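ok so for the tutorial part 2 we go from a plain amino acid sequence to predicted structure tokens. step 1 is just haveing the sequence, like this:
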Amino acid sequence: MDTGTHIVMGVAISGLALSDPTVSAETITMSAVFTGIIAGSLIPDIDTVLKLRNNAVYIRHHRGITHSIPAVLLWPLLLTTLLMLFMPSANFMHVWAWTFLAVFIHVFVDIFNAYGTQALRPFSHKWVAIGVINTFDPIIFGLHVLAIGAWSLGVAPFYPIVTMYTIIFFYYLLRFAVKAAVKNAVAKTIPEADEIIVAPTIRFFQWRVAASSKTHHYVGRAYGRSITIYDQFKREPLPDFPEVKAALEDSNVKAFTSFSPIYRWEITKFGDLCEVRLIDLRYRSKGYYPFVAVAHVNAELNVVNSYTGWIFSEDKLNKKLNFIPHT
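step 2 — the prediction. this is what the tokens look like for a chain of 327 residues:
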């Protein structure tokens, strides 16, 4: 989920914590618990700082080890230990328990996005991405705001927050049902497809669609069970060129291929340079495919520049690559 949603979730969990007699009766413990919950609701995303290094590292590792089983166990212990240094009279077990709940919920809700997490590490490095909830879901965020608003107006927080989470539970079930219906509709629209990816958008009934058959890739949108196919690309393996092999060894391209399950390729010559471009087909927006990996390989089979990430214009991409195209 997005940072804003994780914050309101932390506030809501803090409201639930007030139902704990030890928390509500001890001011120091309450302060430590509230701090631990908010910090625990955000700390798994500390790997966002990897963006400062480069996109390749960020793409390969974001929501990786920081969202793993060991991390879910270690983050609460680390945060609680730090809090006890400043508030030694706080109840350790209660601070740890509520902080653990906040960390667990952060990682748990992230697996329902299309991006997913490596939540099963170290047992599996597979990305767990159920893809039923958009990264920012206005309904989930709005329900949190309503529950927190009722609390701020003087209502005991337990009742509106429990009611909110009950509604969200059934909302998740509904999203599973809608996704299944959309996927079934895509299968009927493209019966030859052997791989179908449907991903949520910020709008409840609209879903992104990417599918592959043995011969073609298909890209479209779903509105309920109505499927519109916008683009169709012939499915071809990457050519066995030396330039392609060199590009595939580049860190940016490796990051892209580790993350993207369905993409097409383009190869373009610019004088002595060969451009190898991989284009993720899951994120079509206004006729453009913004998530790409690009590598420029020279005559000596060296990658002279490369980039992976989100780009919405060729000019911006060329600036990222420090490249002036010429033929």
